[in-house]
C-alpha cells in the first residue's frame, strides 16, 4: 500500500496499513525457524518467575508461577531440568519436566533441546524447545512441535524478579515477532503470593506416560 502526503489521507492510509499488517502477522501453521541463543550452566541455573505466557498448556488461573532450572550433564548428553511450580488458589504444586540437548548442538552452547523425545539416546530428533532470549534479567523459552499434522506451541517470558520493570519486559516481548512467534501473551499474576518454601506438592511423574499425555507447560 502506498501512502501519499496529505494530513487526512496520510493518517487514514497509515491506519489502514496497520490493520493490514496486523492481519498478515498471524501465527503460521508450521514451526518457525527461530534463532536460539547461547546458554551456560551458571547463567541458566536458578529460579525464574513466569511473568507472561502463551500457547499450549498455559493456564493463567494458576498464579505465582516460577521455574527452577538446572542444566546438567548425564550419561547420554546434556539435560535441561525444569521444576515448574505454581499456585492453584489453595496450595502450591510442582512437577519436573526434562528436555535433552539436541545432538546436533551437543558440542556448542546453543540453547536447543528436545522435549517429548521418542527415546533416542542421545536425542536425535529435530529440536523443539529453544532458548530464544537470555540476559541477566530475562529468559524466553519457546516450544513448537507438530503432532499428526497439528501445530502445538507455547512461549514463556521469565524474569529473575517477580515484578520486573515493565518497559524492559516489553523490549524483550517485542523481540518475538521478528522470530515468527505471534502468540497472544497473557500476564501471569505474581501478586499476593503465599510463602513458597515447604508448601509445594510434587505431582507424581508416570514412567510410562503416553506421548499424547506429554505437555510442555
Written account of the structure:
With 217 residues, the chain is an alpha+beta fold. It is built from three helices and ten strands. The protein has a single domain (36-193), classed as Calycin beta-barrel core domain (Lipocalin, Beta Barrel). The chain has an eight-stranded antiparallel beta barrel.
Write the layout of secondary structure elements.
Elements: H1 7-24, H2 41-44, E1 46-55, E2 63-74, E3 77-87, E4 92-101, E5 112-114, E6 129-134, E7 138-147, E8 150-159, H3 166-174, E9 186-187, E10 200-202
Parallel strand pairs: 4-10
Antiparallel strand pairs: 1-2, 1-8, 1-9, 2-3, 3-4, 4-5, 5-6, 6-7, 7-8
Which CATH class? Mainly Beta
CA radius of gyration is: 19 Å
Report the total helices: 3
Helix content: 10-25%
The CATH level-2 architecture is identified as Beta Barrel
Number of E strands:
10
C-alpha end-to-end distance: 40 Å
In terms of quaternary structure, the protein is single chain
How big a fraction of the residues is strand? 35-45%
Low-confidence stretches: 1-24, 203-217
Overall residue-averaged pLDDT value:
78
Amino acid at each position: 500500500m502506498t501512502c501519499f502526503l496529505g494530513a487526512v489521507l496520510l493518517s487514514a492510509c497509515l491506519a489502514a496499513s496497520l490493520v493490514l499488517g496486523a492481519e498478515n502477522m498471524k501465527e503460521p501453521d508450521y514451526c518457525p525457524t527461530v534463532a536460539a541463543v547461547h546458554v551456560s550452566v551458571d547463567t541458566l541455573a536458578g529460579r525464574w518467575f513466569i511473568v507472561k505466557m502463551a500457547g499450549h498448556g498455559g493456564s493463567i488461573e494458576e498464579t505465582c508461577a516460577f521455574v527452577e532450572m538446572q542444566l546438567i550433564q548425564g550419561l547420554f548428553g546434556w539435560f535441561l531440568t525444569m521444576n515448574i511450580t505454581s499456585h492453584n488458589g489453595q496450595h502450591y504444586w510442582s512437577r519436573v519436566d526434562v528436555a535433552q540437548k539436541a545432538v546436533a548442538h551437543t558440542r556448542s552452547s546453543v540453547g536447543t533441546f528436545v522435549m517429548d523425545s521418542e527415546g533416542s539416546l542421545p536425542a536425535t530428533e529435530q529440536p523443539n524447545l529453544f532458548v530464544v532470549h537470555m540476559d541477566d534479567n530475562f529468559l524466553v523459552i519457546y516450544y513448537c512441535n507438530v503432532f499428526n499434522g497439528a501445530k502445538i506451541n507455547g512461549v514463556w517470558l521469565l524474569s529473575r524478579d517477580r515484578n520486573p520493570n515493565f518497559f524492559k519486559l516489553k523490549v524483550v516481548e517485542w523481540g518475538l515477532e521478528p522470530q515468527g512467534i505471534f502468540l497472544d501473551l497473557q500476564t501471569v499474576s505474581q501478586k499476593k503470593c503465599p510463602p513458597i518454601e515447604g508448601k509445594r506438592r510434587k505431582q507424581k511423574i508416570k514412567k510410562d506416560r503416553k506421548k499424547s499425555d506429554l505437555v510442555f507447560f
